[in-house]
Amino acid sequence: MNKNVTKIIILLVVLATISIIALFTTKQKRKKLEANKPRTQLFELNETNVTKYELKYDEEPIIVEKIDETWKVIAPSNDYKIDQLEAFANVKNFNTLNIDMTITNLSELESFGLDNPTSEFTVWEGDKEYKIFVGNKTPDEERYYVKYNDEYFSVDLIYIEALKKNIDMLRDKQIFNRPIYVDSVIKTESNIRDYTNTIIKENRTNWIVEGVEEEINLEKAYRDFEALSLVKATGFVYDENTIKYINRLFKIPDATVTIYMEDNTKKTYEIVYDNNDNKLYVKPESGIIYEADYNIYSAAMRDRSYYIKTADDDKKTTDEDPYTDMHEDLRLDENLQQ
Beta strand 151-156 with 99-103: parallel, antiparallel or unpaired? Predict the structure, then answer.
């Protein structure tokens, strides 16, 4: 009996030894496979753990940091809000630095332009730092030479250019404290110097222009109703002298636009168009001056006759392909639901 117990113990020890060896061998094979797997990215980030990144491609570096789960631009110094989605999108851009080619022949290293890099991008995943240096474009001008961890690569131009977020891209484009949704707006009112243009949403598919008794071109009315309601910044004014100059223009604004909401609240902003630099400036109640798209100016300054449906409108509808009309109706309905 003791002999049988001894045999069983020996057998178990042998089986355990075989299992350990098999496990070790499997791990080694896995590591070897991983090591031999083609490398496709400069590095791979756990995006949720990224806390900061720095962009050096212009005169002044831009540093963006996540503080208390909120992305903020900490350099250059500022006091403005940041578009959180735009800030995080650049983390994703770091994670798409795909390798076009690994360069091992360094005989032409001087031509890479990496002795004096044109750009430098750094991202921090917790305490771990990833830094890349960007040199010249490749001869076909479709890629950049890049240095990372003393290795050299070429990376498609689009991946590098995507990292170059400027302050205007990172700033929050909302000119009001809270975003406005077109479905919550019931009326827009543009007070121009000698008349007022008012567009009223009667229901989800019909708009009225005050003072117009004729049939309304609904597409034109909705397009302007939407443009005036969803006003967003396209740029920002930084220079103090420019701000003083534009504020003088706002002493007599071209128009004052009021947006009326279903909850009986309203938002107001003024607009001026500067012919000297061909830019439209918007100033909401906060007093901050923003650049905006010209279509806001067009919508605000319309003459009421613009919205009257004409025979040409009817002819256009008749001549158009019925399937096109159907898609246009669907697009309009989708916009209304947003």
Answer: antiparallel
